[in-house]
Specification:
The protein is of the alpha+beta class. It is built from six helices and 14 strands. Strands 8, 9, 10, 11, 12, 13 and 14 form a seven-stranded antiparallel sheet that branches. Strands 1-2-3-7-6 form a five-stranded antiparallel sheet. A two-stranded antiparallel ribbon has the order 4-5. A hairpin with an 8-residue loop joins β10 and β11. α1 packs parallel to α6. The longest helix has 23 residues. It is globular and about 50 Å long.
């Protein structure tokens, strides 16, 4: 599939048009950002590792029946995907309290609530991707109530499958954020990526962080943490 002009660039990826109007090429960059782009750096191998990790996860979810935009991985940093209209929402699923939720509510990080917690943020860099509720999302025309119902249903299923996957390799799935889009025929599918950039992943025994928090919190060894996730998932 021939790569044509770039149609979008985000913090961690670039999107390119292809000869097929319903397909795009998604390129993973080595760029790392945190705190809504305030902190920036280049991390060696990050794009390649996230591409490989996301590929494993997407293939696993597809085998479980989750609808996604993924078609195939075409090289170290690129995936061929269905073109979708992205909902301007980040969907956050929390199995443990960590990060912003811990700070916002004063709950110690690592606390395991009795329930799984779902949050949504409005994807708007100018506003800092604010936390919103379903009624805000509908008022913003970011999604309808029926679309949100389907999105939450898929998120719940994805969470169960990912917990199962990571448990097999001794990893705790603390939380993750995902995005959804609509294909040309109106089907809601999982889009973007699932990687240590978008999920908190802790070693089951040591609780060592093996995700983007190593960059956010200046813990070092970011590439090594991502390599460890890829090595474990690749062993399955």
């Amino acid at each position: 599939m021939k790569q044509l002009e770039k149609i979008y660039e985000g913090k961690a990826k670039q999107i390119y048009r292809t000869e097929d109007e319903n397909l795009i090429i998604m390129h993973y960059k080595d760029d790392a950002t945190a705190y809504n782009g305030i902190k920036k750096a280049q991390i060696k191998e990050k794009g390649t590792l996230n591409n490989k990790i996301s590929t494993i996860i997407y293939k696993y979810l597809i085998a479980k029946g989750i609808p996604t935009h993924y078609i195939e991985t075409i090289n170290d940093c690129d995936q061929l995907c269905k073109k979708v209209t992205i909902f301007p929402l980040e969907v956050i699923c929390r199995n443990y309290v960590a990060g912003s939720m811990s700070k916002r509510l004063g709950i110690p990080e690592g606390t395991k609530p009795e329930n799984v917690i779902f949050e949504i943020c409005y994807k708007n860099d100018t506003l800092g991707d604010p936390l919103i509720n379903d009624h805000h999302a509908v008022a913003l025309k970011a999604a309808t109530y029926d679309e949100l119902k389907e999105i939450y249903k898929l998120t719940s299923e994805i969470n169960e499958y990912l917990k199962e996957l990571f448990s097999k390799v001794g990893i705790i799935l603390v939380d993750f954020k995902i995005e959804f889009g609509k294909t040309f025929d109106g089907k809601i599918v999982l889009a973007d990526e699932i990687s240590p950039d978008t999920a908190r992943l802790w070693d089951e025994k040591t609780h060592d962080k093996l995700d983007k928090d190593r960059f956010r919190r200046d813990l070092g060894h970011v590439t090594e943490a991502y390599q460890e996730i890829y090595k474990r998932l690749g062993s399955l």
